[in-house]
Input
Amino acid sequence: MATEQPILTPGADAPPRRGLRLQSRRVVELVGLGLLVVAPVVLGDSFAIDRLGRYLLLAAFAMTVDVVWGYGGMFTFGHAAFFGGAAYVVAILTTQQNGVLPLPLWPAVAIGVVAAAALAWAIGAFTFSGRFALRGVEFAVVTLAVSFLLERLMNAGGSVTGGQNGILFDVRLEIGPLDLQRRLPFYMLAAVILVAAYFGLRRFVTARTGLVNLGIREDEDRVALLGYRVPAVKRGVLVLSAALAGFVGSLYYVHEGIVSPAAVGVDASTLVLLWVVLGGRGTLIGPVVGAVLLNMLTASLSGMLLGTWLVVVGVVLVAVILFFPSGLFGFLSGPEGRR
Amino acid sequence: MRLRRMVTMAVALAVALAACGGGAAEETDPISIGIIADLTGPFTTYGTSLDRSARLAINEVNEDGGIDGRQVEVITEDIQTDVAATVDKARQLVESDEVDLVMGPIGSDANDAAAQAVVEDNGALLFYTETYEGGKCLPTYFSFGAVPAQQIRPFIPVLQEEFGPRVLLFGADYVWPRRSFEIAKPIIEENGGEVVGEIYLPLVAEDFTELVSAVRDTQPDYMFSLYPAAFAPALQALDDAGLLEGLGQGNIFVGDPDLPGVIDLAQGMYTTLPYFTAIDTPEATEFLEAFQAEFGEDAIPSGGEGVGAYVAVHLYRQAVEQAGTTEAEAVAEAMVGQTFDGPTGTVEVMPSHHLKQTIHMVRAEGDGYVLVDSFADQDPEEDCEL
Amino acid sequence: MTSSAVLELRGISTMFGGYKALDRVDFTVDRGEVRGLIGSNGAGKSTLLNVVVGRVEPDAGSVIFLGTDIRTVPDWRRARLGIALKFQVSSVFERLSIEENMRLGAQPKERGGDSNLDLVDDVLDLVGLGPKRKRVAAELGHGERQWLEIGMVLLTGPKLLLLDEPTSGMTLGESHHTAELIDRLRSSDRVEAMVVVEHDIDFIRLVSDRVTVLHRGRVLASGEVDEVQADPTVRDAYLGRLQ
Output
């Protein structure tokens, strides 16, 4: 992937406009970066910083869903299977005592990422290729089933998966002597990961395969008859997304200190869809903002309005969709926003 | 237009960030207690009761001059019957709101998460008040709900005398039922009973044919159950198979709020828990009246946490006054050995950080529970040396 | 065996349910030829094209492209071998820009594959969509969509170009432009042969050398446009006398 060059050239024949022409996306990116840097200073409270760091990892998760759904048109109803599934692998590998186990954190994370990628590969092979090639609603159902079954499996896994109680982590987020488990160090880790993931995914969606992904969203048959191996491309995008989701999910749950069956289940898979819709599908930035804002809203309201906060969150969601049908950042989803 | 939209959004984001960071430090004078309770989601009934019981006790303490002259403030956070929310709110209470004590949660998965966040990560005090499987052994963690041994030890002889020696163990497939039955088996054998079968079904099952077969094949005198989610359908399945009639019922989880759902199928069923509204001692009646005066005549202190949270607050007050500080480890040390005359009997904090307390036994008759017996000073029998 | 045939269909039959969409069809297109393909609705024209590109698998017969039997070659690989189809219902990528549409046709189909990205500007000019390159495809009118799709598939560098109703939804002026486009392609050295499916016999006459008439899945006639038009069985088919 590192050798892929972005292929969209700046516009040659764009109609002349008055004044300085700012690219919308650049502006939003700058504002976003600025906020990321400024946030710890504004917040002050180290718990609030820690919590924001958590939201940044959830935002990265939302981006992985956007790549598959917003850009690729593959409605994924089970992405928590990758996000939480990798975390489970890490938990098991770092807590079980058996021969070469327990492993240290980072090798376990690497294996977790591979596991998530492998699961995605299998789902892709099953639903995109051969006789059982499925599309649209059917793919969503398969992913839903995987998420649902995985939650059941984790619940029934006895002493291996901790059953309903899940697994408590005893490793911490550390790189050498640096303890990145909580507060400002954690926030910085999360921010770096989010920014790196964002720019990495941006490169992907503007490069060759990213464009094919967009085409597949519109019309798979047309793409196939241009000479692309559509099933392989879809599977590749799913695997990439799952691997990144697994990486981010592993760190997220180590930070939480515990991973339990809800981490891979349908509720978690559905919640992330809400963030993506709210923020704007096919924009990358939208889902980031959607994830952060909605989590912030939920956390503060559930503290202030005990019992009724759910209703308020619901009302806010409906209001946003009414005024911004394509999401808050829907205006970035066209070709302009892709540059 | 676009630019305006973006500026609006940036401003909104900044405002939201600022609002989020508004956790100002608490004043040093009052003592603050944080409650992590499920106020939404499947555990709403229990979470609400936990919050109410704690607040009832805190109001009493405050009216009585507070703890060492200091008033007690309460912050309740809704953990939404969700482990992730539990971690978040527990950390918030300890790290941002800087409470002196955390009380809650309900579920044992949330308990694991809360213990990790409160006790292991931050060395703060956590009081768990729900009936659970036991086994938690941490320096600043205390449990006030019932644990299996104290519910089961006085229970088995009664069940055996009432129904017979042959017992089928029926549980949901997770740690609470499994550990409870592990503890139950030697007790049953000591009493001359016989475990004829042991069956586990998923927490929310729809198909009970395995259970029906087990009852049919093993022909127990009574069924000993710990199946908290879909108990009514399980009993219904047995009834449909004609196996419910004549089968004795004993359980350690069906509290007052859960009874209406099963009462028709559970006539003659025995239950042991620390609290029932059927307990009619003057102290228990007074407690219930105060509870309902505060929270409405339909409010019920439910199951283990009905009085657990209440006595926990009073014990905390005693420990803080004895230790002369709210510092977690000092309070933890002072907690051990504290006794309190609660609404349902005298309780004592054991060195294992679990509670020796009175366990009450009821039987389902007509449309409610009838108190059959009370077993004072039941030892939690927890293996925990701190 | 050197032959001047770019495409050869021999005895192609295909059934949909109990219905014979194509019945022992023989169809040959030679190098340098623009072949018209006409017939009433349901005659099997689009089905024939779909058999060529691999969207439909025939029940019998062989498909020979540049001397090679491609029966077992999957659709995407046929496209890479040099067969391109403009769909009957014009299919462009609605939410992508015109430029992005073109690039999908031009860019390498796999890592290290051939690229025609340097030709995008030329093709944009060829189909007359240069000034609109930044616009989103959904904004295009019917006629422009056809040209966009033609440009897109052209950029895959096809040897055999199949156009399924390239003037549908076009005004007379637009149709003429399309005819010119086809003419220019005929004289280019990359496209070796074309098949144009149309209802409009005058358009066919304008662009084709020879024409094949399909009726109910069978080849009714094949030859020079005037000959075919004079053929009584063809006239009868169009007037409904043949069953």
Notes: The two ends of chain A are 19 Å apart (CA to CA). Chain A touches chain B through 49 residues (CB under 8 Å). The longest strand of chain A covers residues 167-168. Residues 18 and 294 of chain A are 37 Å apart (CA to CA).
